[in-house]
Specification:
heterodimer, A: 197 residues, mainly alpha, Four Helix Bundle (Hemerythrin (Met), subunit A), B: 82 residues, 3 helices, 83% helix
Chain lengths: 197, 82
């Protein structure tokens, strides 16, 4: 019987985990604010939800899940690096990161077009409670995707310069787990705001 | 490991398509909301365990996001059903 030995610490800098836990609590409170506010006016929430484009929400979910997959593959490529294949590993990781960045940008473009439509309809934070929560949650998340994409781009640039070595790729992992958190938040946001009625 | 990650990605895609179809085909009702929330818990759990890599570290680090996910989804269910 072999027992898997557990690592002492998760991947990435310890500070990023503090940030992730704080972000989870913040978004968690907004999710619950939405869910419990809905109870007081279910009809208004259901009618307002009809203005959202479920298909673009669905496509964006697929995009984020896929981008997370690419980031995992990039982290795998870099963590399998040895002294004799530093260049190859960095190039391999950069390829996966580029795919993830393209996904991040695609998400932003689709979400921006959704915002453009919503704001074009004259909807603001003050329109009603549904749109207040919708805009708070999705704009806040949108900003996280922007930051995540910038982080991935910086890691990508470093991999292109063969900047990671077998002894130094913690920054790479840190960016990766941040991106997975962005994905995790959307995984809860999508059914809550777009589907449940 | 690569095969595992690809399999997980396929599972995540399938569960996402399931959620979308419930909404798109207007099949969503009170019993399916529970199934949708359970499938969301599974998706989030897979991301936490395998994408974030917390399955292979000490339990305390894994428990924080798992408890967060379970609590948030349970309270969403409470808000929906009560």
């Amino acid at each position: 019987m072999s027992k898997t030995i557990k690592e002492n610490y998760p991947a990435g800098d310890f500070a990023i985990w503090i940030i992730i836990y704080v972000e989870l609590v913040t978004f968690g409170l907004l999710f619950l604010g939405y869910a419990f506010s809905r109870r007081s006016n279910i009809e208004m929430f259901n009618n307002s939800q009809l203005l959202l484009n479920q298909t673009s929400g669905f496509i964006n979910t697929l995009i984020l899940i896929t981008s997370s997959y690419f980031v995992v593959r990039a982290v795998q490529a870099i963590s399998e690096m040895r002294q004799n294949n530093i260049k190859e590993s960095n190039h391999k990781a950069s390829k996966w990161l580029l795919y993830a960045i393209i996904c991040g940008i695609s998400f932003l473009v689709i979400k921006f077009s959704e915002f453009y439509y919503i704001f074009g309809e004259g909807i603001t934070l003050s329109t009603n409670k549904f749109f207040m929560f919708y805009l708070l949650l999705t704009v806040f998340h949108f900003m996280h995707v922007i930051l995540g994409t910038i982080i991935l781009f910086n890691i990508y640039k470093k991999t292109r310069n063969i900047g990671y070595t077998p002894n130094d790729y913690r920054g790479f992992e840190t960016g990766g787990v941040y991106w997975h958190m962005v994905d995790l938040l959307w995984i809860v946001l999508f059914p809550l705001v777009y589907i449940i009625r | 490991m690569k095969k595992t990650v690809t399999t997980l990605w396929i599972i995540l895609v399938i569960l996402t398509i399931f959620a979308y179809l419930l909404g798109y085909l207007k099949l969503i009702n009170s019993s399916l909301v529970a199934i949708l929330l359970i499938s969301t818990f599974i998706k989030g759990g897979l991301v936490i365990d395998y994408f974030m890599g917390l399955k292979s570290v000490k339990l305390k680090y894994r428990l924080i996001p798992i408890i967060w996910l379970g609590t948030v989804l349970s309270l969403i269910a409470v808000a929906y059903y009560l």
